[in-house]
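request received
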Amino acid sequence: MGGSRVAITGLGCVCALGPDVPTCAEALFLGRKDRVAPVRFEDSYSPTSPVFQVASPLPAPSRWLKHGVSRTNSLALAAVREALADGGLTSSPGSLRVGVCMGTTVGSALNSTRFYRGYLDRKEPDMSPVSRFLSNNPALFIAREYAFSGPCQTVVNACSSGTDALGIGASWIAAGICDVVVAGGADELSRVTYEGFASLMVTDDEMCKPFDRNRKGLNLGEGAAALLLESEYSWRMRRKPPRGFVVGYGAACDAYHLTAPSPDGQGLRQAIAYALETSKKASAEISFVNAHGTATLDNDRVEAITLHEMLPGVPFLSTKGHTGHALGAAGAIEAVMTMICLEKGRIPASAGFSVADPQLPANPNASTKEIVGSCALSESLAFGGHNSVIVIEHSND
Amino acid sequence: MTDMRMVIKGIGVVGAFGSGIDALATAIVDGIRPPLSTAEVITKEGTGRLSVYRARTEGLEEFFAKRELRRIDHYAKMALLAASLALKDAKVSGQRQGTTGIIVATGYGPHRTTFGFLDTFVKEGNNFASPTLFASSVHNAAAAYAAILFGERGPSLTVSQLEMSVSSALLTAWCWLAEGRVDSVLFGAVDEYSDVLGYCWKRYFGVQETSQAEMRPLDFERQSAIPGEGSVFFLLRRNENQGRYGCIRGVDMGFADCGRIDLPETDLLFLGADGMRETGRLYPPHLSGKNNFLCHAPTYGSLPIGPAFDIAIAAHEIGDGAYLETNAEALPEKTIGCLKIGRQGEFSLVMLARE
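response:
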């Protein structure tokens, strides 16, 4: 996106904090509640690690889908509907070219355990889960729902998908490919990812504690968030003042390991450096960092060391103590949280943190804090060693 | 149409026809239909047989030590072989200059490994889930292995947009090059066959008798698709003189049911029809007499990333010329379009040209 500012004219979010942005914004500063409700896994199954589930009802699409709508897409629809309403783009966009760029993990995986059990048992299983997968590509689903004619892209970069979708959407606008991009991420809770993270022994049987000395791992979550990204031509033509801007995006690989971050944080450093470079912001202009902060031993160590060295003194926090790790949706949800904090001029305590880890050179924010400035980073680290960072600026207009 | 100029510096392909762009070109020029494998499809009625275009990855050992490939699955191996061949074709080796981004397009991701992971806890119980299989089952595993084994620390992206995966991902490749985020993009596409996919194929389409299996994609109303697998990679750059293969000059995406697709005048149009009746019947309303069209799916099979093979064939034709059922006079401007229409009416058009 090479130094250009891409406007954010609408926000939408649904996660364990609440069904919309105002509710999430309020809950973010109220402290953490217990999130231990049973999950809607496909099989009957009782997980031992808490999960952060969306409790609110989800909207139905305006058109009938023969094989039904995936929960991931229902979550996405809730967030996109709110973002479009917030951005005043509820009617036909007319001549505007609107693209869709959505991050996900579960939403693009053919992994129905119910179907697979039937297949293994040679019981000619119902093909609905497969048909539903084929007709529920997240970006295409949103484009079809709103008759958007621009390009669709479903980003499957594991846990950085949501952040990458925002950076890519901003690049599409900067390059003139689209006037507007509905960008974000969506993911539902799934037994498959639950079992996967459990097998890696990176889940906590209690509530997660990002950056805390007693952290043991992550809790999974679900949700969706969408940002309405828009060119200057478009928002001026629509007379819709931006809430903020995506001013920078950096991404880089560790090229180190499939699941563990590089111990020296090389890829994360490169991603932060490039995000700052493209935003033309100095590190001193960054008000805070919404860290990935999964509460795994390795992730939090690498992030704390890297942030301490690259952005010394800049407060950071993790919001996963409120939302769980919503995988492909996480980066988008955290971008919305970042925007909320910039608008409020303060950041909450990093949920779940109470005891400083002497192994970490810096600690997350421990109480509600006023911030100075109008820019913040939101970062994601993913399987595959991919690191993504966006720079968001609050509109002072 | 998004105008762009991405120079294709190297191509690597892996499919049932063999490995390398020359193997693909030979199959096209000589009209060779690759040998079909026979897969068993187990149903409650018994075992059926299904013809499949399978890809082999033995050539990978030319590029990597066996121990480096120890835990890497077939999906990622196909991608790594195609990527290695693309770099070799571009005469790029060792320490590369500048930043290279890695972009991988896939329709279905590494589902063979995903179901392998399901096996470990569905069959064995909750405490037996395999962390190794889980890690390799994420869609971006192939891109991650490429970054690790090639030592590339630039940005990485994996896109899963069903039949539009390739064209969609190309748009982002162009953005990365245009904004100077990277100097090169190692751009690829990969999809694999699995027993579960074969089972689904049988349930949706029935099973063609092996002896009669033949793809007839231009018989648009006939279901003749045969599942395929493989990978295609390109090394793309922006500001360079034309390469051996010409350039990708534009990508258009939209919906074919929102009016007639605005097909530009091209010397040749490659149709992404692949023997699927559901999508094949969507092509004729958009074709006119001004378009000379061909279809190459019988060389690589039916798979979501089929357009990547068409782009490779088009690039080879634009670069080295003379093959196909046409001749040099038929390509005065050296422009070829690759059109794909998806199951939900979405379409993409990728334009290639000499300059």
